[in-house]
């Protein structure tokens, strides 16, 4: 149980830290604005850490509910045959792949 919650914390923190890296130094590029980074930090602090002993499904439900009401935004993916893929974390708007 604790292992599963810790995995969520590590995943979210990794995304947050990757976005803070110096551009061009990481193997995979990440695109994240400050609003999204703040929301990740807030979710970790309020919806993950205080409930680290809770059922994994309940933690997932709590974290995913933080995204209810997020508007749809088309074409958020970056990458293609001639363009390197970029991990896009944008909680201002999400598409069907987010």
From TrEMBL:
It comes from the Bacteria. Pfam families: AmiA-like. Coiled coil: none annotated. Residues 1-21 form the signal peptide. Gene3D superfamilies: Putative xylanase like domain. The keyword Signal applies. Keywords: Signal. InterPro entries: AmiA-like, Papain-like_cys_pep_sf. This is DUF1460 domain-containing protein.
């Amino acid at each position: 149980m604790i292992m599963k919650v810790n995995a969520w914390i590590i995943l979210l923190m990794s995304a947050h830290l990757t976005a803070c890296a110096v551009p061009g130094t990481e193997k995979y590029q990440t695109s994240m604005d400050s609003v999204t980074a703040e929301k990740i930090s807030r979710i970790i602090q309020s919806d993950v850490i205080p409930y680290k002993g809770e059922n994994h499904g309940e933690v997932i439900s709590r974290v995913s509910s933080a995204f209810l009401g997020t508007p749809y935004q088309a074409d958020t993916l970056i990458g293609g045959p001639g363009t390197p893929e970029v991990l896009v974390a944008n909680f201002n708007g999400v598409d069907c792949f987010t």
